[in-house]
Amino acid sequence: MLEYTVVLLRVVRPLHYFWVGEHPPEIHEENELMENEAREYMESTAESLSQDGIDVEWRVLVGHPTTIVLEHVRDIPHSIVALTTHGRSGFRRWLIGSLAETLVRSGGDPVLIVPPPEQQEQINGHA
C-alpha cells in the first residue's frame, strides 16, 4: 500500500519587506497577527484532512515565499507540489515574481497549479 504525508506549508511575508525606511512600531504587531491567522487556518485545514484519514503535517514560516518553498521542496524528495495561484499576469507578475513559475522551472518535482475560482470558471467555460 502506498503511504504518503500531505505537508501543508504557508509562508507569511513580513510587512517590513514592503517598507522603506524606519518601520512603524505597529508593524511587529501586524506581522504577529498575520502569523497567528495563518496558524489558525493551517490547524483547521490539517484537522479537516486528518478527519478524512489523511496523514498531514503543517508549517507556517516567515520569509520570502519562493525561497522558503523551494528549500522545503528540495528537502522532501519525490514530492508532488500542489499550490494555488493568484493568477497574476503582466506587470504585477513581473514586479513580484511567480512562485508557481519558479517551482515549475527549477523545483525538480511535478507541480499541480490550481487557478483561482474566477479563472477556473473561465477554463470550464462558465464565464
Give the topology:
Elements: E1 6-12, H1 26-51, E2 56-62, H2 65-75, E3 81-84, H3 90-96, H4 99-106, E4 111-114, H5 117-123
Parallel strand pairs: 1-2, 3-4
How would you sum up this structure, described in words?
InterPro entries: Rossmann-like_a/b/a_fold, UspA. By secondary structure, the chain is of the alpha/beta class. The protein has two domains: 1-63, no CATH class; 80-127, no CATH class. 46% of the residues lie in helices and 17% in strands. The strands form two sheets. A two-stranded parallel sheet has the order 1-2. Helix 1 (26-51) links the parallel strand 1 (6-12) and strand 2 (56-62). The longest helix has 26 residues, at 26-51. The chain is globular, with a radius of gyration of 17 Å. The termini are far apart. The model has no long low-confidence stretch (mean pLDDT 78).
Describe, in short, the structure shown.
46% of the residues lie in helices and 17% in strands. It is of the alpha/beta class. The protein folds into two domains: 1-63, no CATH class; 80-127, no CATH class.
